[in-house]
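Lab notebook, bench 4. Still working through the backlog of constructs that have no structural model yet. Next entry is a single chain of 372 residues. Request: give me the C-alpha cells for it.
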Amino acid sequence: MDGRRAARQRRALSGSGLLTYIPPRRSDGTIQPARIKQAWPKNRLFRILSIDGGGIRGVFPAAYLAELERRFLGGQPIGRYFDMVAGTSTGSIIALALADGMSASQALQIYVERGERIFPRLSGWRKWRRLLRWIWRPKHDQAALKAELLSVFGDKLIDDASIRLVVPSFEGRHGEPFLYKTPHHPDYQKDRHRKFAHVALHTTAAPTYYPGVEDDGYVMIDGGVWANNPIMNAVVDVLACYDVPRENIRVLSLGTGDAAFTVDDTVRQGGVGHWAFLRAFTAAARAQSLNALGQAYLLVGKPNVVRIDPPESSNPIALDDVRRSLDELPLMARSLAEGSGHHVADLFLRDRVEPFICVPTFDPRIQTPTPP
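Model written out:
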C-alpha cells in the first residue's frame, strides 16, 4: 500500500514532460501517540512571547520590545526572558532574530535599514505600472526579501537557536498547515537543519505580495493564511510537550495593528467587488486572531495573557507602507509601553529563563539519542 501511495505521489508531469517529485504530506509523518511530556520544574513559570504577522508593520512589536529593553533591562536582549517565541510572517523575523541572540533593538533595525529595499517606494508612472502589474503578478520582488534575510541570518540553523521556536507556515501543494519548530522535544527532528533565512522566507510569502516558495516539492506560503496570531500554536505545544500546569503559563501576545472590520449592508449584499481577496483575507486574519486569543484566555486564564496591539483604525497602514510604519509605529509603541510596561515587566521580566538546549538528535535505527 505504501509503495502504491508513493507512486501516486510521484505521478505529476512538469511542463517539460519530466517526472516531478511530489513529497508526501508532512502530516503523514506525524507521530500518532500523545507526546511524552518533558519534565518542568514544579514552581517555574513557562513564559511565551507570541508575535503576529503584518508585513512592515512588524516595526510595532519590534519597537515595543525595544522600549521594554530600554526601560527595564538596561538594553539586555529581551529574548533571555522567554522560554518560547512564536512568530508568524513578519513576527517570525523578530522571533528568529531573538533566537539568534539579537536584542529587540537590533531586530527593529532590520526594518529601519532594510524596509525600503524589501518594499521599495515608487512614484509616478512606475507606481501605476506596478499597481497594474499587481493584477496578474505578485507586487514585490521576492529575491530582494531573500537577499536581506540571508544577509541578516546567514547560515544560522534552527538547531542553533537559543530559544524554543514555533513558526507557522502553510504548504500549498497539499493544502495544509505547516509548523516549523526547534528540537525542544525528542519528537521534533524534522526542522533542526533548516536555515533561519529559509524558514522566514517561507512564512512571509504573503499571497499577492510574493509568490509561493518552491521547496523540495513543497510550495510554502505565508503562515498568516491560517495562523496570523500564533498564540495557540505556542500554548498547545507547551501543554503537549511539557509537564507544566496551564495556570503556570504566561503569554505576551503582540499584534501589528488590525484594521477595523465590520460588515455593513453594502458589503453584506455585495458581490466579488465588495469581497475582494484583500478584504476577505483581512476579515479571516482578524477573526482568527480574536478566536486564538479567546482560546488562550480559556486555557491559561485571561490574567495570564497580555495582549498589546495598536488601536484599530479605519485607515490602517498597508503591509508594505514603509514610510508610515517607521513614522507612526515607534511612537505608538513608546506610548503603549509607557502605559503597560510596568505590568509586562512584573509578569515577564523579573528574572531570566534557564538557557535552552536542543534535545539530542534521535536515530530511530538504534533507538537511542545520539549527539547533534
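Notes after review: Confidence is low (pLDDT under 50) at residues 1-19, 363-372. The chain is about 40% helix and 15% strand. Flag for follow-up if needed.
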